[in-house]
Design a protein that fits this description.
It contains ten helices and 14 strands. It is of the alpha+beta class. The chain has a four-stranded mixed beta sheet, sandwiched between helices.
Length: 409
Amino acid sequence: MAAVVMSDWEQLTIELINRARANPAAEARRYGIGLNDGLPPGTISTASKQPLAPHQALLNAADAHSQDMLNRDFFSHENPDGEMPWDRMLEAGYRYSLAGENIVWSGTTGALDRDAAIHDHHAGFMRSPGHRANLFSPGFREIGAGVKHGVFTADRNYNASMLTEKFGTRAGDAFITGVIYDDQVVQDNFYTIGEGWDQVTVAAVEASSGVEFVTVSGPSGGYSLQVPPGVYTVTVGGDLLRQPIVFSSVTIGSENRKLDAEFTAAAIGPPPTPPTPPTPSAWQNPEDPLDVNDDERITPLDALVVINYLNRTGGGALPPASSSPDAPPPPYLDVTGTGSVGPLDVLVIVNHLNRASAASGEFASAVDAALLQGAASANAALTDERLEVQNRLEEELELIVRAEGNILA
């Protein structure tokens, strides 16, 4: 579905209307009025009303009427050609079953504050009984706002802001609608002119069927996505954000749902690249790291090979594996895959052997004790800087042997 195209002033107009419809009583208090001031009692209920979804045909018709009023210096629902609001909606391609229109203008002989004018327009509609009834009508489902600026001549020339609001309902499914913005111009958790994000993907997947419906936000950040009844997972920014914004279990029936997404530029970018796994040690057996001598078994001999190497060299970092046939492993001395050899490599093998013997109901053999003594001897050959590590290792080895009923003297 194509993006809805509107200006930031038009987006703000729709946001103010939908804020009002979400909580009518709070909106009335904001302007110091009663919901039904000037209206028959009970005309507007305090219940929330479905949000209005922008529709491009209504946006186009509203824009055209605002511009026409500026161009021909008239202010009326009926234009000089005798066309009424519903005529212009039909001409724009909107086949309505219910329709309404609000118009307002404000101006000054000085410099016009275009942003402030939008708030003034909304306040004026809220204080006008007939316009307020349109804002809160539960029968409307779609909207188009048309904001134009220019010179408007009444008793004199004014730098003017002209607004037309077109309300409509037609046959068809409901909408998921909202605005995508960053809240950085005014940090108030509400859309402000200049905060919208263009071309952000909004994807809704229906749970039972798996059917996906997709649209993108328009230049102002607004979007409108028509979907059949169902339960949806809605993902915003899946192709843009490091961590997409996801709305789960969104139930759509006969009424619209509003889902606004707020994020900042810092969230933009592809998902973080996972760290590159370390290059496997050439001195570690790729089939089984504990099989040091590569005989497809794990026996005390594997530990003994490492112990002999420790006694002979003192351990430490292993040299690069040579490509000559007599130098590369086996033996695969790097049991732990750290690129070096130390007592821990022996301990890993011994732990494995002791667990295996315990599982089979046997005790560690005398060979195991000899290996442990060899490991202690290898530890003694290490440098002073590693003495603390050696002592801990010897304690761990002794505990292992004691657990198997063999006391290391």
